[in-house]
Amino acid sequence: MQEARPIQSEVSGYISNLLRQHFGKGPASVYVTIKRPYITIHFRGFVSPMEKILLDQEEDIRVLETRNFMFSALKTEILQELLNITQLDFTELYVDWNLSLKSGMFIGVMNEELAWDSFEWPEDTQRDVFHKQIERVNEEAARIPDKIDTFWMSNRTLLLKRSGVLVGIEKALIDEGFVDMLKLTKRPLEHKLLKAAPLHHVLQRNINEIFMDWNFSQDVGYIAFILAAEPR
């Protein structure tokens, strides 16, 4: 694999051009972090002129539906280009958008074994307490996940993986083809519960943004926390 900085710059440029080509306007900035088996791509200042008109008319759902449709169409292309640039075979790709802050997040996942020593928790944080708080949030929303794993991608990006998150009614909705509707319902609820939880006390960081997405066929979900640069 090449040096990290050139790879990150190349991925950043590719994502900027991709969004500009398909939405008519690229993001103001793109931040790429690679720590195998993950890549996080956080972009800011991203909203097209047409989307701005819709958002001004409170048509958020239409914007999200269009973006998610476009992402589904581009997913294979993005994964292939990430392989070309990084020489890393990311097999899964997750996405979420923060329309109010004009930002978004792509999360790529490789199918390889984790090197846990690459994701040690900072000394001023409490991993077990954080996991317990996440369990309480999930229990209030639906159910406690079978397993929770967390990965510090950088000082400002904490990635969380939840396995075994679906309840019976959600599985039934998925079987009936209501995947997009389920995501549009789950996101606002879980965002609200996460923001209300005292997670920042445990992390010793203010949480600036939260992104989440799921792979319902695998019953797995990811949450990316974008944190303030300085400890509290």
From TrEMBL:
Database matches in InterPro entries: MpsC
Domain of life: Bacteria
Pfam families reported in the protein's UniProt record: MpsC
Record domain Na+-translocating membrane potential-generating system MpsC: where: 7-111
Protein name (Swiss-Prot/TrEMBL): DUF2294 family protein
Organism the protein comes from: Planococcus maritimus
